[in-house]
């Protein structure tokens, strides 16, 4: 059974989708993610990509995130996320969208949605591709933090466009990579730095 670890809904149960292919983020890994993020969750706009049960986005809302958007291509997962949001009283702060990652990112960009905290928990072996995909769309706010959960044998790059790797951690077969967005220099500041 999975529960909210901390915040306004601490101890409340999170339902799991009844699907074999869903790989839930273990409590100890979730706890590690939010310990590393520390207090930088409050007020944030969160994207939970490959959301599964929605446990990461829900944990973020419980800890004070402004809003969370949950993306998954599974109808079972989306149904479970919506039930979790309803049961926890987070319907106004969370939105679950059933689309595959690429279409979802394009949709969010078209709607001018921007995020300053992104969780990516793709199928094993697809972390690098998913990370590059996220960066290719204009959805990241300056100083955005992107947390990638991946298999220990998958090596991720130190830098992807303006995202730089800040921290890595390993828990059994699961690895966490924390990236941070550096805002691109404006033309004016580029000229100033050249002079």
| Strand order, sheet with most strands | 5-4-3-6-7-10-9-8
Number of strands: 10
Order of helices and strands: EEHEHEHEHEHEEEEH
Q: What is the CATH architecture term? A: 3-Layer(aba) Sandwich
Tell me the CATH topology.
Answer: Rossmann fold
Approximate shape: globular
Alpha-carbon distance between the termini? 59 Å
Integer count of domains = 1
Query: Which bin fits the share of residues in helices?
Result: 25-40%
Rg over C-alpha atoms, rounded to the nearest angstrom:
16 Å
Q: Note the total helix count.
A: 6
Strand content: 25-35%
Derived from helix and strand composition plus strand pairing, the structural class reads alpha/beta
What top-tier CATH class fits best? Alpha Beta
The largest sheet, given as strand count, sense and whether it forms a barrel, is: 8 strands, mixed
Stretches where pLDDT is under 50 for at least 5 consecutive residues are 185-195
Q: Quote the average pLDDT.
A: 89
CATH superfamily: Vaccinia Virus protein VP39
What would the keywords be for this entry?
195 residues, alpha/beta, disordered C terminus, 6 helices, Rossmann fold, 29% strand
Short structural description:
The protein is of the alpha/beta class and 195 residues long. Helices cover 31% and strands 29% of the residues.
